[in-house]
Amino acid sequence: MNDRPKVLVARRVPAAVAERAAREFDAVLSDHDMDAAEAVRAAREHGIQGILSGPKVRLTAAHLPDLPASLRVIANPSAGTDHMDVRAAVAHGLVVTHAPDVLTECTADLAFLLILAACRRASDYARIMREGWRKPYGMPDLLGLRPSGRTLGIVGMGRIGRAVAQRARGFDMRVLYHNRTRLPPALEAGAEYVGSLEALLPRCDILSLHLPGGAGADGMMDRAAFARMKLGAVFVNTARGSLVEEEALIEALRSGHLFAAGLDVYRREPEFDLRLAALPNVFLTPHVASATVETRDAMGMLALDNIAAVLAGRPALTPVAA
């Protein structure tokens, strides 16, 4: 008789995560990223006790009555939970978890890649080489910006923002930041606090967003915000696409008010605005900040750790507060 906990892995996961799920649980492993309706059906059909969720499993309050009474925990292998109604799920008696720490270093690495690539015109350089580079370039041609020694503004000085600041110090950058509250001096590590976004924007050569979505921040980078940035500044976003009004960003890039942008997140994914791809001064990546072997494995393993803990009657390791 199989008395292992019944777990639904409702998205594709790395091989190491799938292997562990199959070994430790009575696991239903999906070969694609399920949506909410599919996940609810599978949970009911198999009497599921824990779900390893994903961004397409957009569980709302309306879905909760259809979930089986056996379900006890929904584990998100990413930091964000804005794809589901956490408050409703917790009120329904479910434990919701996420992975707030394991993405920090890789997201900071990618943010800095975007900073360097945007400043140094990596899109132009890559295009020229892929097209076969047969034209010589002289001293006035293909000039980027030197990131070293510039002023970096960070919006959202949480774990990832602080990790980006740490990398910036290696490039002799001056770091300014805006946060909901000022950090203790030990966490600031020499960064300068700026009390409002409006005051921060004109002082930055490079601006990098590290806020979660929601909480009144959606659309914060609008026409007025971009207009307040320095002429020739660089804009980077590895946080949430919803933070940016993309029409305003495209206008600022086309006009030359912004020198360049580096983007990993978009308002619509994967159907992002193709006008961004047509701009030579934009360096784009397809929402891959966590896409390393080490981090994706760690994300999935932490989700399984949370499921195992809850189903064994222990507290979740990284619960989400409602």
Write the layout of secondary structure elements.
Elements: E1 6-9, H1 15-24, E2 26-29, H2 36-46, E3 50-52, E4 73-75, H3 86-91, E5 95-97, H4 104-119, H5 122-130, E6 151-155, H6 159-169, E7 174-178, H7 185-188, E8 192-193, H8 197-200, E9 206-209, H9 223-228, E10 233-237, H10 246-255, E11 258-263, H11 274-278, E12 282-284, H12 293-311
Parallel strand pairs: 1-2, 1-3, 3-4, 4-5, 6-7, 6-9, 7-8, 9-10, 10-11, 11-12
Helix pairs in contact: 1-12, 4-6
The portion of residues assigned to helices is 25-40%
End-to-end separation in angstroms reads 37 Å
- SSE succession: EHEHEEHEHHEHEHEHEHEHEHEH
CATH-defined fold name of the largest domain: Rossmann fold
CATH fourth-tier homologous superfamily of the largest domain: NAD(P)-binding Rossmann-like Domain
**Low-pLDDT ranges:** none
Radius of gyration: 22 Å
Q: How many beta-strand elements?
A: 12
User: What is the CATH class name of the largest domain?
Assistant: Alpha Beta
The main β sheet shows up as: 7 strands, parallel
Q: How are the strands of the biggest sheet laid out side by side? A: 8-7-6-9-10-11-12
Strand content: 5-15%
- Total count of helical runs of at least 4 residues: 12
Find the structural class using helix and strand composition. Answer: alpha/beta
Q: Tell me, rounded to a whole number, the average pLDDT.
A: 96
Shape: elongated
User: In the CATH classification, which architecture of the largest domain applies?
Assistant: 3-Layer(aba) Sandwich
What is the count of distinct domains? 2
Family: Belongs to the D-isomer specific 2-hydroxyacid dehydrogenase family.
GO molecular function, one term: hydroxypyruvate reductase [NAD(P)H] activity
InterPro entries: D-isomer_2-hydroxyacid_DH, D-isomer_2_OHA_DH_cat_dom, D-isomer_DH_CS, D-isomer_DH_CS1, D-isomer_DH_NAD-bd, NAD(P)-bd_dom_sf
Protein name: D-glycerate dehydrogenase
